[in-house]
Design goal:
The structure is a single chain. By secondary structure, the chain is α+β, with helices and mostly antiparallel strands. It folds into two domains: 270 residues, no CATH class; 62 residues, Endo-n-acetylneuraminidase fold (2-Layer Sandwich), CATH 3.30.2460.20. It is built from nine helices and twelve strands. The longest helix is centred in the middle third of the chain and has 23 residues.
């Protein structure tokens, strides 16, 4: 996505490229929509647009007016507006999952309001964070589309009807039936839509994104599970009907978060067709691993050129030695402590029938927040 290239040609040396200019169509646009979009374009700090922004706007407006979609994405968007609505809702879900996974870290997957790039300049760097976001976004599209297919919300797809006859597992034989999640269709459409921009340019960043997009798609398929319904006298389960279903999206998020921890630094090979692992002693395979090209900033201080928001004011845990601990989160700058009152529900009791009654209890707690840098404008470059 062009959100990593901007207009700076020097980015190519770091595996970052200028994006491809989106093509526009001449469909008439309602005056209200045009005014809204014009205001967004004027007041949004631009790196460049991303399809991720579909989560913030309606699909029709995205297709017709917002730059950021390459021609193939725009065509898919216009041909399947119902799918774009699903992808938009899915975008909100995977962004929430990203923020859950990094809630205790210096970089917390924060988004920028009214910014077409969603994450800002942090995605310009070919870092571990970019690797995770691309994988997570691709997984989110697969999950959202597959779910919508199984629920009958889309005309173009439904349940997976290919599984027929008998099979067996560690519990014995069963009959395929029910409504298996159509994961293959979800992967097929996600690959066509999400990968479209990366396939237009052959550079290191495009290869990195394509690789991580694939890892994201496979993360959802990895956790497909067998669900069964028993048939027989008194639920004896003498006969079973089974189908394949996706696991909760959290499992994919947890898996990709671990892959972030073990992500592999790579460089482009000489003929420009693939990767070489930067560590020459590495003997494994990168097939199922996230890959990155550049080291991450430490995210301690505000640095707008790097997209870092810094950790000043972030809440930290005084007693933790982990990434959410005040020593790590505050980068050694120290922290401020404020005593606050919190109201929580307590002494909850079940009342017949059928409610739970709780009391409001006040408690006084200490909240610790990271101090700013002594020179707060040190890296605050506009």
């Amino acid at each position: 996505m062009k959100s990593r290239g901007g207009s700076d040609s020097s980015g190519r040396a770091m595996g970052i490229r200028p994006g491809t200019k989106a093509q526009h169509h001449s469909k008439p646009v309602p005056k209200l929509h045009f005014t809204f979009i014009l205001l967004l374009l004027v007041f949004t700090p631009r790196v460049d647009s991303s399809w991720w922004y579909i989560g913030a706007l309606g699909a029709r407006v995205i297709c017709d007016n917002i730059p950021g979609l390459v021609n193939k994405q725009r065509q898919l968007c216009q041909r399947h507006p119902d799918l774009m609505q699903v992808i938009g809702e899915g975008a909100k879900e995977w962004i929430r999952e990203c923020q859950h996974q990094f809630r205790h870290h210096r970089w917390n997957c924060s988004t920028l309001e009214r910014d077409h790039t969603v994450f800002g300049r942090v995605m310009l760097r070919s870092s571990r964070e970019a690797a995770f976001v691309y994988a997570m976004s691709s997984a989110g599209v697969v999950y959202a589309i597959t779910t919508a297919c199984s629920l009958g919300e889309l005309k173009i797809c439904n349940c997976d009807g290919h599984k027929r006859g008998q099979a067996s597992d560690d519990r014995g034989n069963f009959d395929w039936g029910g409504c298996s999640d159509n994961i293959n269709y979800g992967i097929k459409f996600a690959k066509a839509f999400v990968d479209a921009r990366e396939r237009m340019v052959k550079d290191a960043r495009a290869l990195m994104n394509l690789h991580n997009n694939r890892c994201g798609r496979m993360a959802v398929k990895r956790f497909m599970k067998l669900e069964c319904k028993c048939h027989g006298v008194s639920g004896s389960c003498s006969l079973r009907t089974c189908w394949l279903a996706m696991s909760d999206f959290r499992r994919s998020g947890d898996y990709l978060r671990k892959k972030y921890n073990t992500a592999i630094e790579v460089t482009m090979n000489q003929d420009g067709t693939g990767f070489m692992v930067a560590d020459r002693d590495f003997k494994g395979s990168t097939k199922n691993e996230l890959v990155y090209i550049e080291n991450s900033p430490d995210y301690c201080l505000t640095d707008r050129t790097a997209g870092s928001l810094g950790t000043a004011g972030r809440v930290c845990n005084k007693s933790s030695r982990g990434t959410n601990g005040c020593e790590v989160m505050c980068c050694g700058r120290g922290y401020d402590t404020m005593r606050v009152k919190r109201v929580t529900k307590c002494e909850c009791r079940f009342q017949w029938c059928c409610a739970v009654e709780c009391k409001d209890c006040e408690e006084v707690v200490d909240v610790h927040t990271c101090k700013p840098h002594k020179r707060s404008d040190w890296l605050d470059i506009t």
